[in-house]
Amino acid sequence: MSMRIRTSALTALTVAALAAGTVLTAPAAGAAPKAAAPKFLSASQLPPHPTSSWTAGPVTDGFPEELGFCVSTEGVPAYDYRHREFRTDLETSAVQLTVVTGTAAQAKALAKHYDDLIRTCADRIEESSPDVEAEGRDYGSLPVEEGARVRGLHTETSWGATDISLLSVGRDGRTVTVVEWGQMGDFGDAPVAAFKKTTTTAVKKLY
């Protein structure tokens, strides 16, 4: 999403994300045992921008604020969260999250939880903010490792700001990754095929 949506509707959309109501059952020891850290996308593996190159930030511990509109840690055990942000010189951005759980079963449940949050995000945005119209689209699953799914989200405010995001959730064993790409525009501006390639690369690259 562009900075206009992120500035003007931040509070409403974050509240919507936290109000999803889906809670995972935490095991007695939620934190995953330490293992090899999953690898992240590089800037060159993002959907190509027609006029600007991508810049990758450092890999950082914690959950990224950029995913707070649709995905959150609410009701999720204290897993190992790490993320990497990407930027262009224009209003296009991306972020990748990796979550290492304790078992493959926990990762499967978490991937479904995140996908459900993304699938219902548009409805929650409209319920929480009457000034924003939102629409979600399902772009299907990808046959990579234990699977991935790609979805789109378009938002338009009453004052005319329009933004498009592509989001995906994938899993490899006990690790889940979420990737989000966003810029100003609508569904016609979304590089769906390129984003599917990025998602496939992200899941394959984890280990």
Automatic annotation (TrEMBL):
Superkingdom of the organism of origin: Bacteria
Signal peptide span: 1-31
Alphabetical UniProt keywords: Signal
Keyword Signal: yes
Protein name as catalogued: Lipoprotein
